[in-house]
Amino acid sequence: MTQRLTPTAALLLVIPPLMWSGNAVVGRLVAPLISPMTLNLLRWSLAFLLLLPLAGSVLRRDSGLWPQWRRFALLSLFSIGGYNALLYLALNTSTAINVTLVGASTPVWMLIIGRLFFKMAVTRRQVLGALLSLSGVVLVLGRGDWQVITHLRLVPGDVYVLLASIAWALYSWLLAHPTAESASIRTDWAQFLLGQVVLGLGWSALSTAGEWAFTAAHIDWSWPLGAALTFIAVGPAVIAYGAWGAGVARAGPAVAGFFINLTPLFTAVLSSAFLGETPRLYHALAFVLIVSGIVLSSRK
């Protein structure tokens, strides 16, 4: 694994935040039309159908997926069944801008998990970059008011996003430490993603069943919902996950984690255009802190 930010790696790592910002905005738009767990299940069901012609061979009995099914089940739990489901759940009680800004805590969890479980050496520059990002998160949680920050009360959406950030950090570290047995699948991004999706559908189906059994789950079929499902299956799912896996392999999870924090920048523009969620002054300051953390952490 090359711990170096090349132009190719930077481009690969910029694509997912752009796609995921669109995912947050679209998820917020369709929240009144569909329950969050159901949305997640339908999204990945469509992604499965898109990937099947490209990588269907990975589902054969003699492929390298099934000897490694426990590892792929864990990867899919933290990403498809965990991170994505929690994100859609958060968008029911929080704005798209706030959700993506709170998600800027990901680099902090990247460093903590890397140090505790993967014996990563944490540099002062990375710590400072993480603190800059975290200060931006705190600023958003307090809605730009210092008195609110000192008496901070998290809304449900904030808690869901914090849990999602931890899940994504775990997922990224597992990506960066593949087993020798899964090497054949890792060389083909479509096979690698489909291997996660087929097992992730199991996690998504379980959470969706619980949603329909114990909550007021609903789905209102319409053309806008169909268009939204198509977008989040193609862009934020297939394209973004393929680019993220390749980018993490080139730059390493610690540096890649900071690129997730570009998502609020893109989300602010899209939210203003499609949701009418006009960014505030504290959002702009949080953006500056986030970008500073990215630049500082990725410098040699």
Automatic annotation (TrEMBL):
The chain crosses the membrane at residues 40-60, 72-91, 97-118, 127-144, 159-177, 189-209, 221-243, 255-275, 281-298. Keywords: Cell membrane, Membrane, Transmembrane, Transmembrane helix. Residues 9-141, 156-298 form the EamA domain. It is a multi-pass membrane protein. InterPro entries: AA-Vitamin_Transporters, EamA_dom, EmrE-like. It holds the Pfam family EamA. It is found in: Cell membrane. The keyword Cell membrane applies. PANTHER family: INNER MEMBRANE TRANSPORTER, S-ADENOSYLMETHIONINE_S-ADENOSYLHOMOCYSTEINE TRANSPORTER. This is Drug/metabolite transporter (DMT)-like permease. It comes from Rhodoferax saidenbachensis. The lineage of its organism: Bacteria, Pseudomonadati, Pseudomonadota, Betaproteobacteria, Burkholderiales.
